[in-house]
Amino acid sequence: MRIDIVSVLPELMESPLQHSIMKRAREKGLLEVCLHDLRAYGLGKHRQVDDYQYGGGAGMVMMAEPLASCIDDLQKQRPYDEVIYMTPDGQRLEQPLANRLSLKENLLILCGHYKGIDERIRQHYVTLEVSIGDFVLSGGELPAVVLVDAIGRLLPGVLNDETSALFDSFQDNLLAPPVYTRPEDFRGWKVPEVLLSGNFKKIEQWRYEQAVRRTKERRPGLLEEE
Ligand code: ADE
Q1: pLDDT value at position 163?
Q2: CA–centroid distance, residue 44 to ligand 1 (Å)
Q3: This prediction's pTM
Q4: Separation of 30 CA from ligand 1 center, angstroms?
Q5: 148 plus 187 within the same structural domain
Q6: 179 is in which domain, residue-wise?
Q7: Is 125 found in the same domain as 188?
């Protein structure tokens, strides 16, 4: 999969994409992430990318022209399955959306800044708007990294244990059960006996019950979803 990201602050995304699972995905050639500095398409001597909003009001708006030129250039090189705009008023990112996007070939992500991007880009270029939650961040860069991580870890071969993403919280509308590692007894706090029993059927049953209990306690709404 290839993901192109357009931003006025690409540096903000470099580090998270160079570590851990994202690093592994990129090194294995399973995921290619390319950052594009919108400033390169800025207008005039100062490479302007934003301007005051029509109608007045505080805050700058990202201009249509640099964004359109950048997207046009990228679209000449490959067809995109989705042109995604990260915005707090978009569709909420949840596991099913990450699952769906992980099956795509090429994604283009636009990061807004300031008051957002000119509405005409949303109308004429963007095919999907994504929010990472009901709070406002200062730009779309961190949300874009969240989206890339959520997608990248689902690509076959990225996680060490291929099956482990299947048991994440939210796949099956269940939160994940508790997990333990050595030592068996830490300050008198013991690992549940069943996990040491070697009886895999019982262990599976216990994990399922714990997952259901945790979901009922913390996110009862999930159990009612399809
Ligand atoms: N940009 C600013 N806040 C955001 C959010 N919550 N989700 C996606 N993009 C954003």
Answers
A1: 59
A2: 29
A3: 0.94
A4: 26
A5: no
A6: 169-224
A7: no
